[in-house]
């Protein structure tokens, strides 16, 4: 049987440390860079319930992933909180020995309803996505005309429940780059870490091109000119965000520079889609069907072995090799399905 001491690494010598689990491909928002409403309309076929991994199946798979080295779990989607009883999944996962951190990424709207339950089940942290502090800009971006207030209420509810909150903002030129400074000022004042994410060419539906990307450097320099920043060391190998602090404060800010300063050489992340496919890269074109494996009666050691083989064969480094050409031609999986 596989043990953690075996130190599983892939073909580029990267260990397996993080597992992102998508619990649903559905969402209450239609952010144009993720699920454009023209494509994800009323007639769009989402996964039927029976195709989703059950919580017990997710738990079984997670146990095997932990044996291979996974220490951090992130629940995501789609919008993870549109799936019923996610707190029950959190509770199951907190009992797995070896997991050091469980977090959830959400658009925040359902946090007033579920934050306490999630915290009670053992969740430690939430990352809340918000792309503008200006109501009209945000309404335009989420495709459902939802204002900023429900998200701010979600943040408050999470903090009141004792969850640590970090914010994510995807920056898209011409759409919300005017919001970089207002967002930085707002969350600095609140003492909440805000992370800026470069707009990525995930999937094939968001019309991505390089011209719409605002680089980490440009965002950094803009903020730094008004509110000086100093870098902070990464906390662990494979940390995605480059971290900074506002000088003279404890308030942090981060940058996820997947396009202009890629970080594939330290990418320790695996992803499971809501229907149980394992992806070894956000930009993968195909996954490995774990649901069929588990539903065909595989034993724990069969699963351990299958995961080990996939990880050991991994060579993905899409962002290191990205060109305008690969971004357009490659048939990639949608972010809402693979799990952001
Ligand atoms: N619905 C949840 C949310 O929005 O937080 C979780 C899933 S969402 C796919 C996870 C993260 O991916 C969000 O922070 C979202 O802004 C980010 N994201 C989605 N599409 C993106 C893109 N094309 N480029 C960069 N980040 C993206
Ligand atoms: Fe939904 Fe999150 Fe995608 Fe926006 S980024 S459409 S909230 S899954
Ligand atoms: Fe990891 Fe793939 Fe992103 Fe590179 S492109 S950092 S391998 S998910």
TrEMBL record:
Residues noted as binding [4Fe-4S] cluster 2 in the record, renumbered to the chain: 264, 267, 281
Binding of S-adenosyl-L-methionine, residues: 33, 78, 129, 200
SUPFAM superfamilies assigned to the protein according to its UniProt record, in alphabetical order: Radical SAM enzymes
Entry cofactors: [4Fe-4S] cluster
MF terms in GO: 4 iron, 4 sulfur cluster binding; cyclic pyranopterin monophosphate synthase activity; GTP 3',8'-cyclase activity; GTP binding; metal ion binding; S-adenosyl-L-methionine binding
Enzyme Commission code(s) on record: 4.1.99.22
Residues that hold [4Fe-4S] cluster 1 according to the record: 27, 31, 34
Cofactor mode of binding and number, as noted: Binds 2 [4Fe-4S] clusters. Binds 1 [4Fe-4S] cluster coordinated with 3 cysteines and an exchangeable S-adenosyl-L-methionine and 1 [4Fe-4S] cluster coordinated with 3 cysteines and the GTP-derived substrate.
InterPro entries from the UniProt entry: Aldolase_TIM, Elp3/MiaA/NifB-like_rSAM, MoaA, MoaA-like, MoaA_NifB_PqqE_Fe-S-bd_CS, MoaA_twitch, MoCo_biosynth_MoaA/MoaC, rSAM
Catalytic activity: GTP + AH2 + S-adenosyl-L-methionine = (8S)-3',8-cyclo-7,8-dihydroguanosine 5'-triphosphate + 5'-deoxyadenosine + L-methionine + A + H(+)
Pathway participation: Cofactor biosynthesis; molybdopterin biosynthesis
Keywords assigned: 4Fe-4S, GTP-binding, Iron, Iron-sulfur, Lyase, Metal-binding, Molybdenum cofactor biosynthesis, Nucleotide-binding, S-adenosyl-L-methionine
GO biological process: Mo-molybdopterin cofactor biosynthetic process
Domain Radical SAM core: 11-250
Binding locations of GTP: 20, 74, 105, 166, 269-271
SMART domains reported in the protein's UniProt record: Elp3
Role played: Catalyzes the cyclization of GTP to (8S)-3',8-cyclo-7,8-dihydroguanosine 5'-triphosphate.
Quaternary state and interactors: Monomer and homodimer.
Entry similarity comment: Belongs to the radical SAM superfamily. MoaA family.
Protein name: GTP 3',8-cyclase
Organism of origin: Bacillus timonensis
Lineage of source species: Bacteria, Bacillati, Bacillota, Bacilli, Bacillales
């Amino acid at each position: 049987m596989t043990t953690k001491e075996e130190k599983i690494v892939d073909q580029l010598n990267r260990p397996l440390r993080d597992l992102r689990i998508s619990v649903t491909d559905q969402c209450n928002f239609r952010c144009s860079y993720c699920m454009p409403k023209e494509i994800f309309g009323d007639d769009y076929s989402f996964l039927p319930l029976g195709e989703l991994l059950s919580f017990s199946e997710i738990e079984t798979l997670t146990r095997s992933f932990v044996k291979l080295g996974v220490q951090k779990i992130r629940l995501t989607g789609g919008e993870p909180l549109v799936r019923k009883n996610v707190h029950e999944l959190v509770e199951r996962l907190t009992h797995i020995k070896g997991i050091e951190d469980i977090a959830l990424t959400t658009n925040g709207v359902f946090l007033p309803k579920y934050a306490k339950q999630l915290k009670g089940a053992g969740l430690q942290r939430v990352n809340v996505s918000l792309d503008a502090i200006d109501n009209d800009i945000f309404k335009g971006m989420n495709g459902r005309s939802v204002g900023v207030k429900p998200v701010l209420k979600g943040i408050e509810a999470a903090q009141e429940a004792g969850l640590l909150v970090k914010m994510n903002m995807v920056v898209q030129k011409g759409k919300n780059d005017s919001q970089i400074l207002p967002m930085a000022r707002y969350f600095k004042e609140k003492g909440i870490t805000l992370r800026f994410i470069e707009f990525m060419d995930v999937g094939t539906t968001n019309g991505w091109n390089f011209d719409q990307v605002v680089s980490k450097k440009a965002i950094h320099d803009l903020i730094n000119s008004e509110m000086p920043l100093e870098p902070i060391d990464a906390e662990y190998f494979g940390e995605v965000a480059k971290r900074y602090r506002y000088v003279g404060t404890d308030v942090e800010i981060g940058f996820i520079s997947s396009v202009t300063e890629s970080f594939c050489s330290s990418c320790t992340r695996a992803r499971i889609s809501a229907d149980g496919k394992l992806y070894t890269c956000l930009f993968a074109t195909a996954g490995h069907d774990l649901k069929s494996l588990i539903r065909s009666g595989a034993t724990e050691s069969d699963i351990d072995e299958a995961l080990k083989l996939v990880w050991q064969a991994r060579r993905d480094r899409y962002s290191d090799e990205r060109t305008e050409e690969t971004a357009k031609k490659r048939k990639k999986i949608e972010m809402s399905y693979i799990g952001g």
